[in-house]
Amino acid sequence: MAVNDFLEDLIQTEIMDIVGSEDVSVNKVDRYAYSTDAFWVPRMWLDRLQRPCFPDFVVHPESAEEVSKVLKVANRFHLPVIPYGGGTGSQGGTVPLIGGIVLDLKKMNKIIKIDEKSLTVTAQTGINGQILEWELNRHGLTLAHYPASEYGATLGGYIAARGSGTLSTKYGKAEDMVMSLEVVLPQGDIIRSLPIPNHSCGPDVRQHFIGSEGTLGVITEATMRLDPIPEERRFRSYLFTDLATGLEAGRRIMTHRYRPCTMRLYDPPSTQKFIKRVLGLDVEGSFMVTGVDGPRALVDLEEAGIREICESLGGCDLGSQAGEVWWKQRYDFYFPPFAPDLPELFGTIESTTTYDKILSLYEMKKKVIEEGYKEWGATYTGHFSHWFPWGVMVYDRFFIKRPPQDAHEAMQLHNMIWADAARASMASGGVLNDHHGIGFKLGWLMPEQYGAAWQILAGMKKMLDPNGIMNPGKLGFSFHG
Amino acid sequence: MFLTDEEKKLTIEGCRFCPMCFHADTVAGITHRETYSPRGRALTLFALEHGVLKWEEPAVADVLYKSFTDGLPQEWCAGHYDHDELIIDSRHRLVEKGLAPEGVGRAASRILETGSPYDPGNGKEVFREAIASSTSDAELLVFAGCAGRSLYPASLRAMVKLLKAKKIPHRFLDPEPCCGMPLYQLGDFTHAAQQAKKVCQQIAEARVREVVCLDADCFRMLTMRFARFGAQLPEGLRVWHVSEWLNSMIVKEKWTFEKRPDQVTYHDPSSLARFTRLHEPPRAVLASLFSGKPLEIFGNGGKAFCCGDGGGMLLTNPEVAREAARRRFEQACHTGAAFLITASPTCAALLSEARAEARTEGPVVRDLIEIVSESV
User: Fold this and answer.
1) Taking CB atoms and an 8 Å limit, are A33 and B34 in contact across chains?
2) Is the dihedral angle over the CA atoms B321, B323, B327, B329 positive or is it negative?
3) Strands A101-104 and A57-59, how do they pair?
4) DSSP assignment, residue B225?
5) Is the pLDDT of residue A279 over 90?
6) Are B219 and B271 in contact (CB under 8 A)?
């Protein structure tokens, strides 16, 4: 919604009245900076000098009350509101597709309470992930959520996109860490979910907003479960002859109910490509890093049990060094020039399914990408890094070195690959996405993913946000409520 | 000037979509704005290069001057993109276009007229006393720097006291010109070069063998930037930062001090933390002064946070500089130390001000030379 000058002044006055003149911007420099996130499409769009998706206003509230008032103004003018945390998302979740208000929550960064007895923290959700972690570490505590985006992402982003960190196998995804939430509903009401996550008081209101990507309200405060910084954390790595054996080792470790804090199994192309480049190891097969942490006695026990399973399947123990190096450099993969970047066309098309289906899901997607897009020289790699008691996520990526130069053609090719990859995931018993979210990248496939169950989410959206102001075009919801 | 066109292009392309150092950018943390992060600045520069944004937009100068250029984002960056030189280069373009903020021109005028961007009246007496203590044929020259002369003259007074006590012949440049570091940081390369050459010429005329810089930024300028500005220091001249020089005296001349029992913490000035990598000498000096090992402040060595004056911030955006100092002082408070020592008069000035503003029982702030001088 590109507003005219008259309306812009009118709306700006009202928002300034709420947050102060310093905290509303309509200048082009700010609006340009908020026109993209980490998703390939808006990045490519800017790179190819196409007209960006400019917001009309960039607003920096400091409290839930201010957020509430801004949403009331937005409702009166039917103006889109896009909650914005760190802008690290890869699904286009914060791109202002039709303008409106970008609500940058980073000023809402206060830690309200650290409960060292119950091991919880309550904080405003605009707090930067790394800053929060540093503060918790000062108290001997950790959120234990280490996504690659930690340096830039916010607590609210973790929750709104159902994020996952490198130690999720033991500590869970962001959604598992949420105790309770404060949310500003689209029409301005401020609500709180129940104070604890486990109860017998009907369906869980908290869950309606976890993963809602700013489409159902603005998450303004969260109480999160914490862990003590473990006494010991150790890593080892193993090399398996092939992927299937590595997957079987992982399955046995998890179904024996060991609880590694991390377990990352790389497919043969990743083993060669990434492990050689980043770790300097020249190996073939499937490389696996495992990590265990906690009290020393428990670490000894789990490490021995995991090694026994790996060795029973012919896994070659590579010792601790490679794992330690991986841990130390775990985010390096995501910095330029090590991370994939333009002009290459790439995407992380990860999915999760149960152990009985994971290998066939991987093989099917590899085929869909490499055979379906052979003329573009598409390549496919994957690793398996978030393990559950019942299954595992494949973090798979496609790469096309020389995509079309024309921005429109490039976008069409990108979207076609994504649709094929996502449909392959769903056909194999997987889901559209494991932990990056949906955004507008995958939104259009949500009704297909949910089938008849989609009406529940669509109905909830209609009820909570009748004017359709909250982050339009994301998560599969339409542009008009 | 400091990056080639190709390096600039690669840096813009590397940073423009990368959010990985947001947490390390002090301005981003203070403003909470995407535009004022390394990603936001690089994206702005990309848009400027391609005509999507215009240099004349008022927000452009604000975005490019609100950056500490303190090397910390680069320290965290696995790709080590030189974000700071990219920003300084873009400031130079703003200066050339006459679009730099008012503070830049004001600082340049003051430096050219009075030899310092800070209040020229402040510290005049201390510098006069220093000159009076000079020996004309001394082989050691103390370069007080603008901050040592007129922002935090306590450092200069302490240095003179120490030199007198140890009977070390010394001299100063009179008048002492600004080394040009603030001008370089602010993108005024023409005047930075002019100042650098002036300093070189006066040092050559003084015929000294050693120069001791009280200020970390001056030390960086003399040792790492003079040559790039076409200013050649005399061959064989040894340039020290005062912390290195003190440590060498402790080791070679066997200076000893009665050790103090207080707990102490140390703030690494950005120029020592990342650009010249002088982490150990100041700590070694502290180890000879205090009985306990210094308590390390959160963010230390190469990962030390800027205390506020990086990038000439005090001259263009003093409120941002002061907020950075407040945050750094708060981090020092968490150590529980009785003293917060730093090794640059600019840092000492900002952190002292932060302590006064905080009105708490936080650590007492001292420049390293002050605490040494007190112990003599």
Assistant:
1) yes
2) positive
3) parallel
4) I
5) no
6) yes
Q: Which of A81, A104, A127 is a domain's end point?
A: A104
Q: Decide if A338 and B78 are in contact by the 8 Å CB cutoff.
A: yes
Q: Identify which of A162, A165, A201, A197 has the alpha carbon closest to the alpha carbon of residue A181.
A: A197
Q: What residues of chain B lie within 8 A of the CB of A339, using their CB?
A: 18
Structural domain boundaries, residue A453: 449-481
ipTM value: 0.96
Q: Quote the pLDDT of residue A478.
A: 86
pLDDT digits (tens, 9 = 90+) for A96-108: 999 999 999 999 9
Q: What is the model's pTM?
A: 0.97
**Residue B34 forms contact with A (CB below 8 Å):** yes
> Domain tally for chain A?
5
**What residues make up the domain containing B285?**
256-375
- Chain B interface, best mutation among A29, A104, A124, A329, by max B CB count within 10 A: A29
Answer whether A208's CB lies under 8 Å from A218's CB: no
Same domain? B226 vs B278: no
Chain B hits for A27, CB-CB cut-off 8 Å, are 57-59
Q: Domain containing A301 — which CATH number?
A: 3.30.70.3450
- Name the residue type at position B325: A
Instruction: Give the pLDDT confidence of A156-211 residue by residue, as tens digits.
Output: 999 999 999 999 999 999 999 999 999 999 999 999 999 999 999 999 999 999 99
Do A416 and A399 contact (CB within 8 A), yes or no? no
Among B12, B33, B46, the strongest candidate for a mutation testing the A interface, having the largest count of A CBs within 10 A, is: B33
